[in-house]
Amino acid sequence: MKKSFKNFMDSMINDIADYKYYVNFEKVYSNVDKIKVELNILNSLIGSQNIEEKFKNLVLKYPDTLECIPILLAVRSTEVYVKTEIKEYLYNFRTIIYSMDDYIKFMRETGLFDLLRNHIINNLYDYVLGVEVGLDTNARKNRTGDTMEDLVESYIINAGYKYNVDYFKEMYLNEIEDKWHIDLSSISANNVSTKRFDFVIKTDKCIYIIESNFYSTSGSKLNETARSYKMIALESKDIEGVKFIWITDGKGWRNATHNLEETYNVMDTLYNINDLDNGVLERL
Q: Per-residue pLDDT for 50 more than 70?
């Protein structure tokens, strides 16, 4: 028997962050090590009072050091746009396209010369390491999605399904149609949509197409997701041998219950992690 929506919400968990969620240090170290030599060359500018002339000579002698400049401002691109009252610049730090005076002006106006000249930092390698840690936190949202997918996959495996035998990952609608010779045009809007599903489980009686996500914060995207998946659930109801499963969780839903409840009321295969713990996948 399907539990009430209240019980469904009460069983939501706050977070699924693991130890690797907060910072991907392997990626951070790798990014900094790629420019380690150039950063050490630029270290010679720290504490320099004749920094503008020294910077000019250093870049002309070691042009690769110029590529390190954007990351000092927490910018990953090799191009940086600047607009002043009289001119627009699109600085390229892979190839010198302006005069050295313009690049010197960039360093001066952005405050990088002051950072180096005044010895506010002692080592650019350590400084960029900190910058990379900060930038890596922007990837946490993606890591939450990846963590949820990994978690759901572990439940699929524990339920006895085998990868590329009776469960599959990241399959597009057309791939599902071609593999099992079924018509999913009602979901794909007559082959207009290129929707990709996180998982597909194939049993003797049914093909289960599965989406999974986790929301630790609220936002408009949650309501859009609920509406979208409600539509897929309704569109797939008349497709014989196919069932849509949505697995979602997270405290973000506690402030976005309206559309989720609407979807829950029309979809008997909307589950959370608590449902997985209770063996819902084993009973497919």
A: yes
